[in-house]
Amino acid sequence: MGHTIQDVAEAAGVSTSTVSRAFTRPDLVSAKTRDRILSIAAQMHFSLSRSAAALKSGKSLRIALLMSGKMNLWFISSVFEGLNEIFHEAGYDVSVFQIGSIDERKEFFQTLPVRRNADAVIVSSFSIDRDEVGQLNSIGVPVIGINADNSEELGFTAAINIDDIHGSEIAARHLIQLGHKEIVYVSTHREVSLHFSVQNRTDSFMNYCKDHGVRIRSIACEISENGQYNISDVASQVLAMDPLPTAIACQEDGIAIPLQFLLERSGIHIPHDVSIMGFDDASYSADLGLTTIRQNPVDMARKAARMALELIDSKEIDETFVVEKAELIVRSSTSRPRA
């Protein structure tokens, strides 16, 4: 019987991940350690290929990333960056499954358990239902959520979430304390039967405003077939309002930034005429002076990836359901309302 990667690791006095990197990512291993590993591997007639490593370890060396939306969205691309950073170093590939319809969702959950072609599933920004979580858990696949609704109640193995409720409440409180009483909230409108995590943001923001006697109106930002936000339509709806709102809060910076440009192009001065704020602290938010709620999806994804690797190896993790605090970042796009 041939030697395994575990045999090489034990003989070299290193971890199996280090052996894997010596073959696949030699730049991440010191020359001395790499030479020792390769020498021992040669003596054992061991060679590493992805298929061989998968067969010997009983793992597919693949992680399934389940998401809705396009990869060019700031949050999704940031999540992928953080996941790939950790998984690639550990010898895993990340396979992206974009769920854009009910049929695609059904196909994913029918084929993945049968093929067993992933060692863990990362669910980003929406919830899968209890039956689907149970289907994956029944074959020993850990399910880790990143900003996924009700992850603990639905039976996820682990999750890391931004505190959307607290984030939206401090956003609403910021505008109310400035004196705004005519506020509009802009969120996406999705036809797919996926519970997008930002629904919590919408509900908590609007409830906070209503509880404090503030008039709150909502606008649904439509998403085209190619995944683009229809910001022009949102701007038109805002400009047609009577009275004009004194403040606009957006579900995410990806809506707030282009909306700010369009309103200013239409003669609206930000923040003198209308204050505007987002949620994310995405790229360019600081450059444009956008007031927003900060979250760090790259770091959240790194933590989720480390959780997944521990769970794949049947190790216990210190905290399975982590909630990251939201932080208000005040910049120049919000001020007291016009007289």
UniProtKB/TrEMBL annotation:
UniProt-listed CDD domains: HTH_LacI, PBP1_LacI_sugar_binding-like
InterPro entries xrefs: HTH_LacI, LacI/GalR-like_sensor, Lambda_DNA-bd_dom_sf, Peripla_BP_I
Pfam families: LacI, Peripla_BP_3
Family annotation (SUPFAM superfamilies): lambda repressor-like DNA-binding domains, Periplasmic binding protein-like I
Protein name in the entry: Transcriptional regulator, LacI family
GO molecular function: DNA-binding transcription factor activity; transcription cis-regulatory region binding
Keyword line: DNA-binding, Transcription, Transcription regulation
Record keyword Nucleotidyltransferase present: no
Limits of the HTH lacI-type domain: 4-57
Keyword Transcription: yes
